[in-house]
Amino acid sequence: MTEPEPEPEPKGSLRVVLEAERGGRPVKLSLFPRDLSHQRLLEGVGEEEALDRLRSLFHLCGRAQEKMAVRALAAARRRGTGEPAPVDEDVLRESLFESLRALLLPVTGEAILPSSDQAVWRSLRDLGKGSEAQEPDFFRKFRTLLEDVVLGEGVPLFLTRETARDFDSWLKTRRTNSPVARRAALLGPEGEVDVSMLPGLSLGNTESVVRLARALDNRDFLSGPHLEGKGRETGSLDRQRHHPLVSGLWRAARPLSARLAARLVELALWAGGENGSAAEGDRLAGIRSLSLGDGEGMSWGQTSRGLLVHRWSVRDGRVAEVRILAPTEWTFAPKGSPFASWCSSLSRRGGSGSLRRKIVGESLWVFDPCAPVVIREACPGVAGDGRDA
């Protein structure tokens, strides 16, 4: 009997392979980066056509991508500045919306969606339709959705939770009215392994910006980014690592809970009218840019998922080269990334392959991938199966 052809993997997807070794030894977890060749579609054409293609490629986070590209192109024409720009309200709204969307409508693992309530889906859809003219309405709707659906309680009350016991109390008491708390309760202790928090990712000075820009000369660097040979933590966990709730959960060897708490704390800070600031003054949704000379420019900024970097070069009126380094690449790089480090610790714990697959699938949403994820389970001599996670 011939084996069935495996289903094609989603374009641009991440791939997690769980490979069982012979003799009953623990399964091996391997992570493969997503295909980033789509960025080449932006090269060899005029700037306007490249921006049009960019809008089509990034339909979910299009505002952030486009504004970052425009700043990088301006910097390539020697009009860039390393000074932080004010928070871009349009990009901020998109970033906050995407963070809520990932929490409420994850498509990872084998667990049920956290909410099948059509009213929640409609509220989320309406929130994503906000325009600059509706800015006050956006933040009112954002806070309402956050309190009624994500937190299940008022923002001020949630921000008083500063210990692991407080977080467990939230999980226990809010499972009835917060699909996020209900989903988080499914994670269980198996995935709460002891793992070290990686150093933060900051481009706070020109030297670090130029060093990263030069590293981007190697296109393969996009699939496994690092600074000084080390993976980096970016996003809400990095920005909120000193918050009492986040640091307390991490010290208690609960990395998944700490990561989720960091996202919830940051969203609550913004909903409460406070600045969910990043380390070293990089404000969420504030964009910086720098001219690198010789027709090259770079821009970078903090989004809810993490640091987004664009490097564009222009030659003879056409886009010569584009490098886009997204938070997903930092979080899911095959070696040394936050997700890879967690997977490695999980693998050392042992246990059956089916249990491990379940843990990985149910935990991916906490790491917030912005691409489809395929989990495949393989054993030597046995055809593996695969399914979108």
Quick summary of this structure?
The chain is of the alpha+beta class.
Range of strand content: 5-15%
User: Could you tell me the mean pLDDT?
Assistant: 81
Radius of gyration: 21 Å
Main sheet properties? 4 strands, mixed
> How far apart lie the N and C ends?
28 Å
Low-confidence stretches: 108-112, 275-281, 380-389
What's the β-strand tally? 8
Order of helices and strands: EEHHHHHHHHHHHHEEEEHHHEE
Structure write-up:
The protein is globular. With 389 residues, the chain is of the alpha+beta class. The protein has 15 helices and eight strands. A hairpin with an 8-residue loop joins strand 1 and strand 2 (28-32). The chain starts with 13 loop residues before the first strand and ends with a strand. The strands form two sheets. A four-stranded mixed sheet has the order 2-1-7-8, covered by helices on one side. Strands 3-4-5-6 form a four-stranded antiparallel sheet, with helices on both faces. It has a domain at 14-111 and 186-235 and 278-388. The longest helix has 17 residues, at 135-151.
